[in-house]
Amino acid sequence: MMKFRLPCALLAFAWALSAPPALPAQIPAPSPVAFVDVNVVPMDRERVLERQTVIVRNGRIAAMGPVGRTAVPAGAQRVDGRGKFLMPGLAEMHAHIPPPQAGGEVVERTLFLYLANGITTIRGMLGHPGHLELRRQTLSGQVLGPRIYTSGPSLNGNSAKTPEVAERMITEQKAAGYDFLKLHPGLSRPVYDAIVATGNRAGMAWAGHVSADVGLQRALETRQKSIDHLDGYVEALATTQSGNPGFFGFNWTPQLDESRIPALAAATRAAGVWNVPTQSLLEHLAGPEDADALARRPEMRYMPPQTVAQWVKAKRDFQQQPTATPENSRRF
Q1: If you ran DSSP here, which 8-state letter would residue 31 be given?
Q2: Greatest alpha-carbon span in the chain
Q3: Which of 30, 252, 253, 268 is the most exposed place for a label (fewest CB within 10 A)?
Q4: CA 220 to CA 76: how far, in whole Å?
């Protein structure tokens, strides 16, 4: 979880106004916003522009300059930036938005927590029909939340058992207005190839997991938009592949050939495939930290108790595996 203090996070949120989609016609243009005497972190290189005034007008950064030489428009909302920092909003590229049945309070709290930690754009990787309406509500300002890009319901070994079913799902998701396709494990090679062909025809990228029957090489060949959790990479490093690989190849950790990493990295770059490593997930589940210590973290107070209990159980179950030795955890 990000550790920004709230005032800094709110400034980060405000900078995200610099390049949003156009507001719907029925939403009146907001008043200009002036961040006065703020330290700007432009993220173009390692530097801080001290004591700046930044003017946001109609959702775009209209002006920026030293505090003493940059005029604040009449009627602008002034934000005192003294001692604070203004930076581009962060993007969470593997977000799980709760489904509507979780309740409106849980959904809205989750979206607000993204903003409170400086995250102004999310890529929803567990799509649900209700997320299309939520995307509209956050864009219009009806619900306070980050900009949402959402997949449709996932294509996996259960939902897409044949190429014909996969083609139909993609056609329906394109018509519904989802942004991209989410892949979960269990896809056969013929179904995956049908997803690639249909996705290309529909102009919908596919992203997520690498099924065992597909393999990393094929995912790179098809230029899958992103591979999440580094799925398939540990398996590709294993010198022997027998038995259940476990959690993203964890069980095969002892037989990894790390000398293969440069070639895999080069092939990934050449294919133009992005990786979303979800490092926090991998470290927190597979790391040596005690499950009860994880539950006592201060940020857990924001999560529903049943969710925390599920996380604790998952970690305990993982640590009870014979292969979950400290050495394997460290190397993984």
Answers
A1: P
A2: 70
A3: 30
A4: 49
CB neighbour burial string for 247-276, b if at least 16 within 10 angstroms, e if fewer = bbbbbbbeebeeeeeeebeeebeebebeeb
Q: How far is CA 88 from CA 17, 49, 119, in A?
A: 9, 13, 9
Collect all residues with Cβ–Cβ distance below 8 Å to 274 and sequence separation of at least 6. 225, 226, 227
- Residue 64 CA to residue 14 CA, distance in Å, equals 14
Reading the block at residue 79, the tokens are 């934000």
β-sheet with 90-95: strand ranges across = 90-95, 119-124, 147-150
**Residue 235 contacts residue 218 (beta carbons within 8 Å):** no
Could you give the domains of the chain? 6-87 (2.30.40.10), 91-278 (3.20.20.140), 282-331 (no CATH)
User: In angstroms, rounded to a whole number, what is the distance separating the alpha carbons of residues 220 and 273?
Assistant: 7
SS (H, E, C) 35-94: EEEEEECCCCCCCCEEEEEEEEECCEEEEEEEHHHCCCCCCCEEEECCCCEECCCEEEEE
Q: Using an 8 Å Cβ cutoff, are 191 and 213 in contact?
A: no
Structure tokens at 19: 């390049």
Separation of alpha carbons 235 and 240, rounded Å = 9
Alpha carbons 82 and 224: distance in angstroms, whole number: 44
Query: Pairing mode, if any, of strands 77-80 and 33-40?
Result: parallel
Q: Pseudo-torsion of CA 199, 140, 146, 13, nearest 10°?
A: 140
- Number of residues that make up the chain: 332
pLDDT in tens, 213-225: 999 999 999 999 9
Whether the model clears a pTM of 0.70, i.e. scores above it, the answer is yes
Instruction: Render pLDDT for 152-196 as a digit per residue (tens, 0 to 9).
Output: 999 999 999 999 999 999 999 999 999 999 999 999 999 999 999
